What we know:
By secondary structure, the protein is an alpha+beta fold. Helix content is 22%, strand content 20%.
Amino acid sequence: MLREFRLPDVGEGLTEAEIVRWHVTPGDSVKINQTIVEIETAKAVVELPCPYEGTVSALMADEGQTVDVGAPIISVRTGDGEGPADAGREALADDLVPDVKDGAEPKKEKRQPVLVGYGVKTSATRRRPRKPAPPAPAPSTPVSAAPASSAPVSAARTSTAPAAPAPAAYTPPAPAATPPASPSAPANGHAASARVQVLAKPPVRKLARDLGVDLTALTGTGPQGSITRADVEAAVAAPAPATSVAAGAREEYIPVRGVRKATAQAMVASAFSAPHVTEWLQVDVTETMEAVRRLRTLPEFAEVKVSPLLLVAKALITAVKRHPMANASWTGEEIVVKHYVNLGIAAATDRGLIVPNIKDADAMSLPGLARALGELTERARAGKCQPAELTGGTITITNVGVFGVDAGTPILNPGEVAILAIGQIRDMPWVVDGQLAVRKVTTLALSFDHRVVDGELGSYVLRDVGAMLEDPLRMLAWS
Length: 479
């Protein structure tokens, strides 16, 4: 029996992913839960396991290709009939959203089983019943029926469609309408071009918008002249030789996609939706550096990395427990105060900036927090963070000091109301007991959402963090 494995939603409502690397080739034998492919979503690189046992028949997506959730990516030939290894796994071979015939009630969705390595979240919405084609054109397959080579459209995908009304992307033009313009059609003004009706599904429109392709300049090869994903990709591939980077080239063009694209969108949304305020504080951290040195000699920390970031994290956790409003979120209708701390750590990776978080960091011992920080940082740099680690954060730390920078104005991680930046720790002249001395000094910068955190509260949080780093014993007294 030939079974198709369709790209699942790996748990965060994502609509597409890029095939990074295949671990199998046609003809290979595979077992259930064997890793077969690495995909990059807008959040992380995820390894997908195989839901079937058998022989790989075909790889249905190339490395580097972006695939919609629900599109088939691999077919596996299993034993005849349904054996114990296949029972209960048919849901992953079906569409994520079932087809609905004209005038019929939607069938009950099948629950997708969870495989080792990632979770599955089934959308609660259902595909809208297909409308019958208008009687005027010759009887043929409705435009909404996707060709065999195109990926099915998931319900979640429609939420990212362009502003144009969705029916216009599926309804065939009236008999008298002008067919879509070809690249050679003469342009006689903006008014004329505005009347051209482009047939393309929302995922195709989004792809074209992301790649900068003008749909009106394409000739569709899909049903009734509709433009397919292949048409858009062909338009992008055509001029590739002219834009390739040659030796001594003055410009290079890098596609914005995956983690970098998602980060850019999130930062723009945060910067222009939350009123940011940033406060600064220079702190003498000589005692903190001495505490770090002593912790490294203790047997509890023998197998973990101890850095100043550990004590900064502990200080911030303690400060927000003293001032809970700094560990909250703004919904527009209410303020949600979190009585737990999911501590985000901003990490620069080859794929862009990501902010994984340590769940319930406030409940951890200091050795446990040190271990969690080390493991999280290692996974982030390797691109192996799970989707669950990239959501649900309550407050974030960004360490710009590792780049030799004194300070910065950090942008809030979406959904949070405060973020702390740490600058480099360096020797500076400092007055101690009326005498000038050389001390270890850093600069802290706290950005906060002024809708939730006012200047007084922000100052208290920053002051408390600074006080604990000047004298680490305060962490014990205030915890």
